[in-house]
Amino acid sequence: DYSKVAIIQRSRISVMDKNFNYLNSQKICKTPFSCFFDQNGVLVFCNSTHVRYIFDDGTTGIFLCLEFPINMITIMGSEVIYIDDLGAVKSLKINLVEYNLKLNALKGKESNVKKILELGEIIGQS
User: Fold this and answer.
1) What pLDDT tens digit does each residue of the chain (126 aa) get?
2) CA 98-28-14 angle, 5° bins
3) Around Cβ 44, how many Cβ atoms within 10 Å?
4) DSSP at 20
5) Buried b vs exposed e over 66-100: b needs ≥16 C-beta within 10 Å?
6) What is the separation of C-alpha 80 from the centre of its chain, rounded to a whole number of angstroms?
7) What's the rounded Cα separation, in Å, for the pair 73 and 96?
8) What distance in Å separates the CA atoms of residue 31 and residue 119, rounded to the nearest whole number?
9) In 16-120, which residue ranges form alpha helices assigned H by DSSP?
């Protein structure tokens, strides 16, 4: 909806509103290859090793560890759609559980957070 912009630098990503007011700024280790705002307004980006996301409040996470660099186009359902080095459109499966948990928590949707936790699908130290 063109309400936000991401300024990508070598070691920092800054997210601003359409009036260039800072929403957050994150130090990053590796320069992103591609990025976009998803349907929830969350910045999704990939570097040579990960597909990551940043919420407006600065909360971050990782969708996927990559075995090879990709040129990401979008996320459809639970798949990252990308273009490979030969120009073919391909997809990779991602786990959205942690992302959905954080998204619902930030939106104050306690019943959805409770449902996600009850399913016991959280991996790692989320």
Assistant:
1) 789 999 998 889 999 999 999 999 999 888 888 899 999 999 999 999 999 999 989 899 999 999 988 999 999 999 999 998 899 999 999 999 999 999 999 999 999 999 988 888 777 655
2) 90
3) 23
4) -
5) beebbebeebeeeebebeeeeeeeeebebeebbbb
6) 10
7) 17
8) 35
9) 97-106, 110-119
Q: Which tokens in the block code for residue 81?
A: 């759609």
Distance from first CA to last CA of the chain, Å, rounded? 30
* Backbone φ/ψ region at 86: left (φ over 0), alpha (ψ -120 to 50), beta: alpha
CA atoms of 114 and 116, how far apart (whole Å): 5
Tokens describing residue 109: 């949707």
The two structure tokens encoding residue 57:
């409040």
Count CA atoms within 13 Å of residue 16 on its CB side. Answer: 11
